[in-house]
Amino acid sequence: MSRIVNVAAAQLGPVQRDHSRADVVSRLIELLHEAHRLGAELVVYPELALTTFFPRWWEDDRRAADHWFETAMPGPDTQPLFDEAARLHIGFSLGFAELTPSGHHYNTQVLVDGDGHEIGRYRKVHIPGHEQHEPWRAFQHLERYYFEPGVDGFDVWRAFGGVVGMMICNDRRWPETYRVLGLQGVELILCGYNTPIHYAPDPGQDILQGFHNALVMQCGAYQNGTWVVGVAKGGVEEGVDSLAQSMIIAPSGQIVAQTLTNADEIIVARCDLDWCQKYKETLFDFERYRMIEHYGRITNQRGVVPPFGDGG
Ligand code: CDT
Predict the structure, then answer these.
(1) Which residue, judged by its Cα, is nearest atom 6 of ligand 1?
(2) More confident of the two residues 1 and 291
(3) Which of 34, 79, 154, 270 has the most CB atoms in a 10 Å sphere around its CB?
(4) Could you give the angle at the alpha carbon of 175 between the alpha carbons of 173 and 181, nearest 5°?
(5) Complete edge-to-edge strand list for the sheet that includes strand 247-249
(6) What's the CA-to-centroid distance between 15 and ligand 1, angstroms?
(7) What is the pLDDT of residue 2?
(8) Where are the beta strands (DSSP E) in the chain?
(9) Closest ligand 1 atom, CA of 172?
(10) Which residues of 273-310 are buried (b: 16+ CB within 10 A; e: fewer)?
(11) Which atom of ligand 1 is nearest to the CA of 193?
(12) How confident is the model at residue 1 (pLDDT cuts 50, 70, 90)?
C-alpha cells in the first residue's frame, strides 16, 4: 500500500523592501504554475513570504512596523493566489506576519486545501533573536520585539491523505517541536525559513549554516518517522545574505530533493506517507520504546541546572 502526495517546495529568492505584496504574489503564482506542471498537489512557501524580512530593522514605535502584517488571510493582495491555487486544485502553505483583530502579532503559517479553504494555521512558538535594539550588530534580528510566541502549540491536521503539521524556521532547531508533532502521528511537516548566513553572537557558526539546517531537519525526520519539507527565502535581501538550500527529507532522514540556487525555484518530491510506518513501527515505535518516566526535565525545567560542586 502507498499513499503518495506530490509536494513542492517553492523557494523564494530575496524580497526587497520596496517590493509590493502584489509583485510577490505574482512570483508565488508563477511558482505555483511551475509546481503544477511538475505534478504537485501541495506547494509549500517560505516563512514571512509576502515581504522582506522586516525584523532586521528597529522601529522606536513598534506600531510603525504594522504595515508589514496581514490583517486578513486571504486579503486583497493574497486573494489571487488563493483563487489560482483553487482553480488548479493545488493546496498550499504560506508564511506571513499576522495581526489579529484583537491586536496580537504572530509569525504565522497557513495551510490551505485544494479548494482554497483554510485547513489550519500555526503560530511560531520558538521566537529567536533579541528584544532590544542592538546597534553593534551588522543587522538586527528583532523577532522577539515584533512577534509574540504562538499559544496554540504544535497541532496536526488530517489533510492531503495523511497527518500534516507545521513549524516555522527556528522551531526546526528544537527536537521538542518534532517530537510533539511525532506524538500526534505526523507524517508531513511543512517548514518555512529565513536564515541569515551571518550569526552575530558567534560568527564562527556562519560557515555551518547549511550543515546545521540539514542536520536538524534530517534528524527530526528520522527520529519521528516523518517527511519534512524545509523551504527558504534565500539570497541577498537588503544586503543580508540568507541560506537557500530548501530540501525535502524522507522519514529515513535522506534528502530526496534540494534546491540548487538561491533564487525562486521549485523542487518536487513524490512523498509516500506510508513510508513513515517503517520507522514509526520499528526503531521509533514510541509506545514500545519511549521511557517517559525519565523525561520529566523536558517539560519541568527550562534552562540548564548543573550538578552542585566544582568537580574537584
Ligand atoms: N527566522 C528565523 O527564525 N531565523 C532564525 C535565525 C536565528 S539567528 C537569530 C533561524 O533559526 O534560522
Answers:
(1) 195
(2) 291
(3) 154
(4) 110
(5) 156-159, 162-168, 188-193, 227-232, 247-249, 255-258
(6) 17
(7) 85
(8) 4-11, 42-44, 91-99, 105-112, 118-123, 156-159, 162-168, 188-193, 227-232, 235-237, 240-242, 247-249, 255-258, 265-272
(9) 11
(10) bebbeebbeeebeeeeeeeeeeeeeeeeeeeeeeeeee
(11) 1
(12) low
DSSP code at position 148: P
The closest of 267, 233, 245, 241 to 107, measured between CA atoms, is 233
> Which of 124, 193, 208, 212 has most ligand 1 atoms within 8 Å of CB, for mutation?
193
Q: Are 88 and 36 in contact (CB under 8 A)?
A: yes
Q: Which amino acid is at 87?
A: R
Three-state SS for 310?
Answer: coil
pLDDT at 311: 74
Pocket residues for ligand 1 (CB within 6 Å)?
Answer: 47, 128-129, 141, 169-170, 173, 193-195, 199
As given in the structure block, the three cell numbers for residue 125 are 512558538
The 3-state DSSP class for residue 208 equals helix
